[in-house]
Amino acid sequence: MSQPDPTLLPGKRARARGAASNAAGRFERHQVRAFDDGWQIDEEDRLIRTDLRHEVPRSALSYNRSPDLPFDRSINPYRGCEHGCIYCFARPSHAYLNLSPGLDFETRLIARPGIAQVLERELQARSYRVATIALGTNTDPYQPCEADLGLMRQVLQVLAAFQHPTAITTKGTLIERDLDILGPMAAKGLLRVGVSLTTLDAGLSRKLEPRAPSPARRLAMIERLSQAGISVRAMLAPVVPGLTDHEVEPLLSAAQAAGAVGASWIALRLPREVSPLFQDWLNQHMPDRAAKVMGRVRDMHGGKDYDAEWGRRMRGQGIWSDLIAQRFDKAMARLGLHHQLPPLRCDLFTPPPRPGDQLSLF
């Protein structure tokens, strides 16, 4: 029988969550531990529920200079993600908020209302130079709280008004709500969508990504987006060596049958606090495979849990990385999928007129 986690206070239970602990982030001086105070009072047994707080955004666009990323700017309407994917490489970002990359990351979320208005101001700046904006690069913009807040839809309305090239990455089926905006953008060559797939096994998916849509539902989403004229790229991310790597070919076949026109893959990444969280998950849910999975992960990263070097962090290196890449390439060729899709159009970008602007003479 598993012992209660020392980072959870008595009476707290985590159900349908990826992480099983809530250890403090790397910047905290103190760790929280539950202990018996001797009062012998039964604590109320209650689930850890999602807490949503608001942040006033000072900027909408985040820029990066990473040479191994295909974009240099992104927008994140939310911090943290209720999908609770145990493998999420973005978990360590919660430490900057003085929150835990564990359960806090998936239960203590930050929404950024007003981000669309800030974005509009930034795009109106004379110094702004257009390039594709990526959404969903850190946390999913179509996680459950978007249904009530609609921040992603507001951002899309601004991008559509400016005719701005946009790339979205998501596993959230709420994207279907916005087909009335996405369809016309795609028709102008301004949009593409990447749908992340990890496994076709619904049971494994529920353990890996406890609050994300099922594999079958994500494939149905690809089909609906494709039918709306939107180019969809299947993102096999992450490929977990020793656990999901045998599904590379079936995942690509299923995505192609659903209408995807391109695909890519990223190996499991375990930066900072993600590594102990994922290893705890393995020992709890896949104890018979834990040693095999971590052995292959370390083989791909030079004996370490993670190698953050540019060009290696996404794929790793060595025999297992090469084998996955070869199988992926052969399946892509057989299915007629594309590694790279045509670039999105930047020449249509035009700031819409604002009230009070002088009208053109022509």
Topology of this structure?
Layout: E1 12-13, E2 46-47, E3 51-54, E4 62-63, E5 73-75, E6 78-79, H1 103-107, E7 108-111, H2 115-124, E8 133-135, H3 146-149, H4 151-162, E9 166-170, H5 179-187, E10 191-197, H6 202-208, H7 215-227, E11 232-239, H8 248-258, E12 262-267, H9 274-285, H10 290-300, H11 319-335
Parallel strand pairs: 1-2, 3-7, 5-8, 8-9, 9-10, 10-11, 11-12
Antiparallel strand pairs: 4-5, 6-7
Helix pairs in contact: 2-4, 7-8, 8-11
Radius of gyration: 22 Å
Structural class: alpha/beta
Low-confidence stretches: none
User: Mind telling me the CATH class?
Assistant: Alpha Beta
Helical residue percent band: 25-40%
Order of helices and strands: EEEEEEHEHEHHEHEHHEHEHHH
Percent strand equals 5-15%
What is the CA–CA distance across the termini?
A: 77 Å
Q: Largest sheet, if any?
A: 7 strands, mixed
Polypeptide structure, described:
- The chain is an alpha/beta fold and 362 residues long.
- It has one domain (12-335): pyruvate-formate lyase- activating enzyme (Alpha-Beta Horseshoe), CATH 3.80.30.30.
- The chain has eleven helices and twelve strands.
- The chain has helices at 103-107, 115-124, 146-149, 151-162, 179-187, 202-208, 215-227, 248-258, 274-285, 290-300, 319-335; strands spanning 12-13, 46-47, 51-54, 62-63, 73-75, 78-79, 108-111, 133-135, 166-170, 191-197, 232-239, 262-267.
- The longest helix is centred in the C-terminal third of the chain and has 17 residues, at 319-335.
- It is globular, with a radius of gyration of 22 Å.
Quick structural summary:
By secondary structure, this protein is an alpha/beta fold. It has helices at 103-107, 115-124, 146-149, 151-162, 179-187, 202-208, 215-227, 248-258, 274-285, 290-300, 319-335; strands at residues 12-13, 46-47, 51-54, 62-63, 73-75, 78-79, 108-111, 133-135, 166-170, 191-197, 232-239, 262-267.
